[in-house]
Amino acid sequence: MLSHKYNFFHYIAMKKLPVFYLVFLTMVLISWLLYVRNIDLLALYSKQWPATLTMIFGSFVAGSSPEGSAAVAYPVFTLLLNIPPAVARNFAFAIQSIGMVGASLLILGLRIKVEWNYIRFVTLGGIAGLIFGTYKIAPLISPVMAKLFFVSLWLSFGIILWLENRRANRQVFEEIMNLSRSDKIRLVIFGFVGGGISSIFGTGINIFTYCLMTIYYRVSEKVATPSSVIIMSIEVIIGFFLHARLLKDFQPLAFDMWIACVPFVIFFAPLGAFVISRLPRRRIAQILYSILILQFFGAMWVIRPSAIKLMICAVVLAAGLGIFSYLAKLRRV
Question: Is 147 helix (H, G, I), strand (E, B) or coil?
Fold first, then answer.
């Protein structure tokens, strides 16, 4: 049992529930109820229960880690459920526009510590990167290679963060210290690259820039995590709009899964954001390691890549280790 200190309902009972989150929650649930009253819910959930079950866990991860729910949904959908990557990506944008926005509103309402310079400059680059990637990069990536690249890159980050946290004297900060013009440019560039990654998977800018924050700037995981949630919530709204309104390639399957998952993620993503705010920094990092390891070896088990694809995974893993270890050695203050 969680103590009162960690109990979500006890906590919000003692504080005023964030008004914007409450309004958002009410609007989402009313809209969902108005829509589903005209459809066969039993038939919907008989088909989409795997997606719903995945997102109950995935939305909690989205609110409680720098990985969006797509970090869980994308590999599960594409590797285990054989859902096309484009469908998984579009669904990821749609469902995170509910879960991560709800989590962000709760973070802001509860005044959980975030790093606003990180959010501001990464978002600036991320929007441009997402738009560029949606039109120029995503169409060129094959489904299998997209999956392998996804899990290999993030495993490399997990390894470096684990090595960093093994150092007993690792110093962390609650903000970017001595922010300079070059730091602003660096954040925008990382945001641009992260936006390009998000255009492929429906997530990516959050954890890619989180790597920079925790390894290079040594910002505490406790601050970087809710900050990354806010960044991703902005990114997914734009990504959802791009595919639903401009490209008009939002698939019926993605829509059905979205409708089935909405009433669950609107609660579980904010719950994840609350829980992570009450955990120690090292525990947050441990949760992240576990997610990254599971998704990598799960992908290897399901895909069973050929020797050539294994070599590509090794190259991505080695490149990621090189980049992230270099950032760690710089240890900018």
Answer: helix
Residue 67 and residue 290 in contact, taking contact as beta carbons nearer than 8 Å: no
Instruction: Return the structure tokens found at 203.
Output: 């997530």
How far is it, in rounded angstroms, from Cα 60 to Cα 268?
5
In this prediction, residue 8 carries a pLDDT of 55
What is the signed CA dihedral for 299, 300, 303, 304, rounded to 10 degrees? -170
* Residue 67 DSSP symbol: S
Q: Considering only CA atoms, which of 218, 213, 222 is closest in space to residue 194?
A: 213
Structure-block tokens of residue 230: 């806010």
Residues of the chain with pLDDT under 50: 1, 4-5
Residue 1's pLDDT is what?
A: 46
150 SS3 class = helix
Question: Any idea what DSSP says for residue 168?
Answer: T
CB 254 within 8 A of CB 87: yes
How far apart (Å, rounded) are the C-alpha atoms in residues 114 and 135?
A: 31
pLDDT tens profile 213-259 = 988 898 998 899 899 999 999 999 999 999 999 999 999 999 999 99
Residues facing residue 219 across a β-bridge: 173
Q: In angstroms, how far is CA 173 from the centroid of its own chain?
A: 22
> DSSP states of 71-132 as a string?
HHHHHIIIIIS---HHHHHHHHHHHHHHHHHHHHHHHHHTT----HHHHHHHHHHHHHHHHH
The sign one gets for the Cα dihedral 238, 239, 240, 246 is positive
Q: How many CA atoms lie within 13 A of 66 on its CB side?
A: 33
Question: What is the chain's Cα-based Rg?
Answer: 19
Concatenated DSSP letters for 203-257?
--HHHHHHHIIIIIS-B-HHHHHHHHHHHHHHHHHHHHHIIIIIS----HHHHHH
Can you give the pTM of this predicted structure? 0.83
On whether the CB atoms of residues 81 and 50 are closer than 8 A, the answer is yes
